[in-house]
Amino acid sequence: MRILVINGPNINLLGSRETHIYSNMNYTTICDLLHEKAKDMGVSLDIVQSNIEGEIVNYIQDAQNKYDGIIINPAAYTHYSIAIYDALKAVQIPAVEVHLSNIHAREDFRKKSITAGACMGQISGFGYLGYILAMQALIHDFKSKNRC
Ligand code: DQA
């Protein structure tokens, strides 16, 4: 099983960015940890990050026929990107939306996710653990679909 993690704008700044919200764990450490977990879980994992909406759309489009699942943290685009929503709908690869912080317990403008409607579900508020939970959800879904 192949999973693609897509991180949106400013996620590369984890470790120095608003550490009281996002913790002081840096982006590279989180990526290393996810690669380790993926290995333990027996899945192949790629991680990409972009600060540009169109590039994220391209990553989603290019995932077709290459990946069995997408984990996406669209970051600020969560709250207004119809282009990312449409791309997720178009490829029909099972996707899970992840947020490090609990977006429902923050400013009102963060409470609405445009992109979650194109995903199987959303995990919000558990820090980097959210990505691992999302991997488990995608593996569970993949196995249940591929069981004879
Ligand atoms: C975030 C939440 C978003 O509202 C914010 O714009 C981010 C990070 C999170 O992971 O908690 O950049 O997606």
Can you tell me about this structure?
41% of the residues lie in helices and 18% in strands. The chain is an alpha/beta fold. Helix 5 (108-111) links the parallel strand 4 (95-99) and strand 5 (121-124). The longest helix is centred in the last third of the chain and has 18 residues, at 129-146. The protein is globular and about 40 Å long. The protein binds 1,3,4-trihydroxy-5-OXO-cyclohexanecarboxylic acid. The site of 1,3,4-trihydroxy-5-OXO-cyclohexanecarboxylic acid (DQA) has 10 residues, from loops. Residues 10, 73, 75-76, 78, 99-101, 103, 110 line the site of 1,3,4-trihydroxy-5-OXO-cyclohexanecarboxylic acid.
SSE blueprint:
Elements: E1 2-7, H1 19-22, H2 27-41, E2 44-49, H3 53-62, E3 69-73, H4 82-91, E4 95-99, H5 108-111, E5 121-124, H6 129-146
Parallel strand pairs: 1-2, 1-3, 3-4, 4-5
Helix pairs in contact: 2-6, 3-4
The chain binds 1,3,4-trihydroxy-5-OXO-cyclohexanecarboxylic acid (DQA).
The site of 1,3,4-trihydroxy-5-OXO-cyclohexanecarboxylic acid has 10 residues, from loops.
What key phrases describe this protein's structure?
148 residues; alpha/beta; globular; binds 1,3,4-trihydroxy-5-OXO-cyclohexanecarboxylic acid
Q: What is the C-alpha radius of gyration, as a whole number of Å? A: 14 Å
Q: What's the rounded overall pLDDT mean?
A: 97
**Element-by-element helix/strand order:** EHHEHEHEHEH
Strand content: 15-25%
Number of helices, counting only DSSP H or I runs of 4 residues or more: 6
- Total beta-strand segments: 5
Helix content bin:
40-55%
Across the major sheet, the strand order is 2-1-3-4-5
